Amino acid sequence: xxxxxxxxxxxxxxxxxxxxxxxxxxxxxxxxxxxxxxxxxxxxxxxxxxxxxxxxxxxxxxxxxxxxxxxxxxxxxxxxxxxxxxxxxxxxxxxxxxxxxxxxxxxxxxxxxxxxxxxxxxxxxxxxxxxxxxxxxxxxxxxxxxxxxxxxxxxxxxxxxxxx
Length: 164
Hints:
This protein is an alpha+beta fold. The chain is built from three helices and nine strands; from the N terminus they run ααββαβββββββ. It has helices spanning 12-16, 25-56, 78-82, and strands at residues 62-70, 75-76, 92-95, 100-104, 116-122, 125-130, 135-143, 146-154, 157-163. An eight-stranded antiparallel beta barrel has the order 1-3-4-5-6-7-8-9. A hairpin with a 2-residue loop joins β7 (135-143) and β8 (146-154).
């Protein structure tokens, strides 16, 4: 029985070996999850800020028509689209301080109201709802985050508007 109480002596080599420290994974996992949540929140805030800025990018701006194309993509004289004889006439597309717009493509009675409405931006599309009850979708061309061209379908044409 005396042998059972004896402790084993450690060799010199075993004494030199550093003892292994136990790594606690719970705090590391919690820190990684917290970092991911913070990163996701930052990305969400940046995206929302950019969306809010995009909603206001058209407010209080005026655009003028400069080119037009047929449905097949062939460029046409803008006078053909507007059915006017003089070459310097330009249609206008203006946006107010809210989400309203006015679209004038050819000389007409300004009080007819069919060219006014409200809009909503949806990525590279502008969804227009005219006061007369019709809806249309305008295509937006962007460059460096800003809108540089708005393409408006009109009859069998696509009329391109550029910022004034």
